[in-house]
Write a structure and sequence with these properties.
This is DUF2269 family protein. Keywords: Membrane, Transmembrane, Transmembrane helix. By secondary structure, this protein is mainly alpha-helical. The protein has one domain. 76% of the residues lie in helices and 0% in strands. The chain has 6 helices and no strands. Helix 1 packs antiparallel against helix 5, helix 3 runs antiparallel to helix 4 and helix 4 runs antiparallel to helix 5. The longest helix has 34 residues. It is elongated.
């Protein structure tokens, strides 16, 4: 497979960083909105927080997750990093699967359920059966997603662990 030129690699890395930054910014927004939803006495504010979180889960979370994953795979395959040559890359790949699951399924479903429950005719959504449990699951998802993203940033900077034993034995794993 052809290697990238330095300019192509920089453009791809820049795109990867932009998508990863959007993901991290989205998580910061989720934390702020979930904190606001947890602390408000206003039914309108609660509904709005959940509506905005659901909009984010359905748009920028999905787009940035796809963009970061695609550019990350391309960077691994089209450069000397490979997909399974380094322990830190394998850890990032596992964390990526976690963020895909939480982002695509969890955050989307928990915010959708929160929107539906907060729009119920009951004046206080917290009195609605299941709302508190759903809100707790949303918080768990937000925290796991945030920790996963921060760990991926740390792994990208420090690159701990070195090469895997498979990569030291031969080139069959990476195709190089």
């Amino acid at each position: 497979m052809a290697k990238l030129t330095m300019t192509q690699r920089r453009v791809l890395l820049l795109l990867h960083l932009v998508f990863a930054s959007i993901m991290l910014g989205g998580q910061a927004t989720f934390i702020i909105l979930a904190l606001t939803a947890s602390a408000t006495d206003s039914a309108d504010t609660l509904r709005t927080c959940y509506a905005v979180m659901h909009l984010l889960a359905d748009s920028s979370v999905r787009a940035s997750t796809i963009g970061t994953t695609a550019t990350g795979i391309l960077l691994s395959v089209l450069t000397s990093w490979g997909l399974f040559r380094y322990y830190w890359l394998i850890a990032k790949e596992i964390l990526t699967l976690v963020t895909i699951g939480i982002g695509f399924v969890g955050l989307y479903e928990w915010t959708l359920r929160g929107v539906r429950l907060s729009e119920a005719p009951v004046a206080n959504a917290w009195a609605e059966p299941g709302f508190t449990v759903n809100h707790a699951w949303l918080w768990i998802g937000i925290l796991l997603q945030t920790i996963s993203l921060l760990l991926m940033f740390v792994l990208s900077v420090w690159k701990p662990g070195g090469k895997t034993k498979m990569s030291a034995r031969g080139t069959a794993v990476t195709g190089r």
